[in-house]
Every structure is written in structure tokens, then in C-alpha cells.
Amino acid sequence: MDAATRADVAIYTTGVCPYCIAAKRLLDQKGAPYREIRVDDRDELREWLVEASGQRTVPQIFINGASIGGYSELADLQKAGKLDAVLASAPSADAVALRE
Ligand SMILES: N[C@@H](CCC(=O)N[C@@H](CS)C(=O)NCC(=O)O)C(=O)O
User: Fold this and answer.
1) Full pLDDT tens readout for the chain, 100 residues
2) Among 63, 67, 78, 96, who pairs with 53 as Cys (CB 3.0-4.6 Å)?
3) 99 CA from centroid of ligand 1 (Å)
């Protein structure tokens, strides 16, 4: 699916985070490029992330500006057979800008 992947994927992570590793592994397996944004020691960014995602844990994954949740939600999309389509969707012109 590599050639078909068009989505803008951003993953907010910290250094010691098994779920972050699992999420990145799944994205790698799907051949999906992503931007990794580390939030260690970045309190302001982390506060924004809680507001934007509604969750306090990492990783937090955004696809085309929309929060999809953490590794569990990413894996659920994969199990439901929906992840390829999500990763192949192009960002819309009015996609929410993420902070980095
Ligand atoms: N269900 C979440 C679990 C994420 C999770 O527990 N992440 C850990 C780091 S690997 C975390 O943020 N722990 C700190 C906390 O729970 O406040 C997911 O799949 O992403």
C-alpha cells in the first residue's frame, strides 16, 4: 500500500513508551510515513495535546489533523480492516493544524 499512502500522520511520543514503539511498528508495517513529535519535557505542548486528543497518555496519533487516539485505537482500525483506507485518505484543505 506504500504508493497509495497519502495521509498526513503525526504521532506524539515520549522516549520510554512501549505503546509508542508498538504504534510506530504498526505504521512501519503498513508502509505509512509519519512525523514523530516528542513531547518529553514539553509541558505546554503536552497540555495542548491533552486538549486536542482528550487523552493524557502517549502515543497520540493524528491522521489528517484528526485525533484517532493511541495505539489501541490504531490497532482497532487495523483489526477492523479500516486502517489502509484511513492511511490512503488525503488531508482536506481545512484540516486542523497541529502543534509541534
Ligand atoms: N491505550 C493506550 C495506552 C497508552 C499508555 O498507557 N501509554 C503510557 C506510555 S507507553 C502512558 O502514557 N503512561 C502514562 C500515563 O498513563 O499517564 C494506547 O494504546 O495508546
Assistant:
1) 555 668 999 999 999 999 999 999 999 999 999 999 999 999 999 999 999 999 999 999 999 999 999 999 999 999 999 999 999 998 887 777 899 9
2) 67
3) 20
Q: Closest Cα to residue 26, out of 90, 67, 85, 79? A: 79
Radius of gyration of the chain (CA): 13
pTM for the predicted model, two decimal places: 0.94
Residue 84 and residue 59: Cα distance in Å, rounded?
A: 20
Ligand 1: lining residues by beta carbon, under 6 Å: 17-20, 56-59, 70-72
Give the domain 1-69 fold: Glutaredoxin (3.40.30)
Instruction: Measure 3 CA to ligand 1 centroid, in angstroms.
Output: 31
Q: How far does residue 37's CA lie from ligand 1's centre (Å)?
A: 16
Distance 87 CA to ligand 1 centre (A): 23
Q: Domain extents for the chain?
A: 1-69
Ligand 1: residue whose CA is nearest its atom 9: 17
